[in-house]
Amino acid sequence: MTDNQQPLQNDPGFEGGELSFVDIVAFFRRHWRLIFGTAFVTGFVVGLYVILFVGHMYEAGATLIIVAPKFASDLKPNTLTVQGYQQLLESDAVIDETRKRLIANGVIRPNALLQLGVGINTRIISSRRFEDNVLAPLLQTIARSSDGKTAAEIANTWAAVFLERTNDLMAGTTSASVKFIDQQYPLVRDSLAKSEDERVTLADQFQKRYDEVAAEWDDKVSALKNETSSVLAAQQAETRRMIEEFRAQHNLDSRRAQLTALRTTFSTLQGEQAGVASQLQLKQLQLDAARKQLAQTQQLLTLQKAITDDSLWRTQAESGPGGTKTDWTALQDRSLRSQEVNPVFTSLSEKTANIEMEVNSLIPRAAGLAADIERLNTEMKTAEASLGSDEAALDKLQRERDAGLAQLKEDRENILTHMTHARQAALDAIKRETDTRLAQADRMIAQERDLFAELAKNFNQAWLAKAGQNMEDIRLGAPAVPHETPQPRGGVTKALLATIIGGLLGVFSALVREAAAKTA
């Protein structure tokens, strides 16, 4: 025993205050009786206590299913989370109400207490996603008691109180809103229908008034157009009559025809004069040329003929002066001479005479044409001046009548424009009044429609809320039933845990002893 009580510092393996595995093993070898003894005693005592003093407990649980409805109403409070339902289930009000009911039903004694975590507890089974399906979360009320039937009663009563409180919470908040909407919805609907009917009636009244005013002004405009059209037609008829009378009185058409005939004759004579002048000029040129050619042509022609007779040549040769013989070379230029009229001159004389005759005949013709042209020119100028004066008077009359007609048309257009502006002003005034009144009605209808739309939406929500009053978000899935076998007391587990704790206490005691031995 003395060796086991030596401190670690005296151990040969201990150097420099550092522990090794060998030191630890040596420590457990010195104190194994204390460590294992303390662990065994502690485990044995706890196990014996559980066997002798801890009674059997029965556990029962009621399962609540949290299922949110597919068609939720905005008037209905939102579904709580699983943790929210758990907080409501564990609230003091629900537990106290459960205790009162259990005492009233004689399930538990009046002095008995329900404590969360001691006799009752809750458990959440979270939802898990399996492929495309989401499983509903579960909430359990768990109760423990020495009697299985009592545990089941506690769990079921607790779940019933919770469901009642949840139902009251959900239904109480929606009843007042649903009642208000049921009362206001038909009133607002009827008011909106009445306002829309009044708006249609008002629009019809203004449209009728607009059509009546437009028809009245259209009748006035049509009457003015008919009246002024008659005046314009009379003015045009009188103008045509006066022009026709003027033309008939001054015989303008026949005079214009005569002037046209004179102009035609004048043009013809001018053309003929131009032709005669051109022909006369050509003949003058031909006459001048013929006279010039005639002046240059000889009237008579001298003809020389050589001597061809031999006897004649001998006679000439022998008849020289003094009876001498003539030289033959001197007789070479001897010839017979004679004169004749030139035929070219005769032809040119005839041609010149003919041309002179033609020129002499054209000159009086050209003078006569010039006199006729001058006379026609004088007559034309006189006729044109007279006709121009009459046509100027006719044109003046036409312009005066056209100016009067244009003035009538301008006055007519001015009156029509004024009437059109007055008509448009009257219709615009009715249109502005119509727009103002209808805009007021539209604003009122828009407000009532917004209110009706909101009420209609809330009416649907109220209908869903009323339809879902019997559809709880959380319901009892499986009530608690008494179990025939109690819950395990956990003696082995508790003894094992006590043994471990005892071993730790033994190690602590050994360390204390080592420290005490060191200080001693």
- What proportion of the residues is helical, as a percent range? over 70%
* Rg, Cα atoms, Å: 77 Å
- Overall pLDDT level: 77
Poorly predicted residue ranges:
1-16, 468-472
Largest sheet: 4 strands, antiparallel
Structural class by SSE content: alpha+beta
Choose one word for the global shape.
elongated
What is the string of SSEs from the N terminus onward? HEHHEEEEHHEHEHEH
Estimated share of beta-strand residues = 5-15%
Q: Helix tally?
A: 8
- The count of β-strands is 8
Strand order of the largest sheet: 2-5-1-8
End-to-end distance: 16 Å
List strands and helices in order, with pairings.
Layout: H1 21-53, E1 58-66, H2 82-89, H3 92-104, E2 120-125, E3 129-130, E4 133-134, E5 138-145, H4 148-250, H5 252-295, E6 300-306, H6 310-318, E7 335-341, H7 343-467, E8 474-478, H8 491-519
Antiparallel strand pairs: 1-5, 1-8, 2-5, 3-4, 6-7
Helix pairs in contact: 1-8, 3-4, 4-7, 5-7
Describe the structure.
The chain is α+β, with helices and mostly antiparallel strands. The model is unreliable at 1-16 and 468-472 (pLDDT under 50). The protein has a domain at 8-53 and 495-519. The longest helix is centred in the C-terminal third of the chain and has 125 residues, at 343-467. Helix content is 70%, strand content 9%. Helix 3 (92-104) packs across helix 4 and helix 4 (148-250) packs antiparallel against helix 7. The protein is elongated, with a radius of gyration of 77 Å. A hairpin with a 2-residue loop joins strand 3 and strand 4. It contains eight helices and eight strands. The chain starts with 20 loop residues before the first helix and ends with a helix.
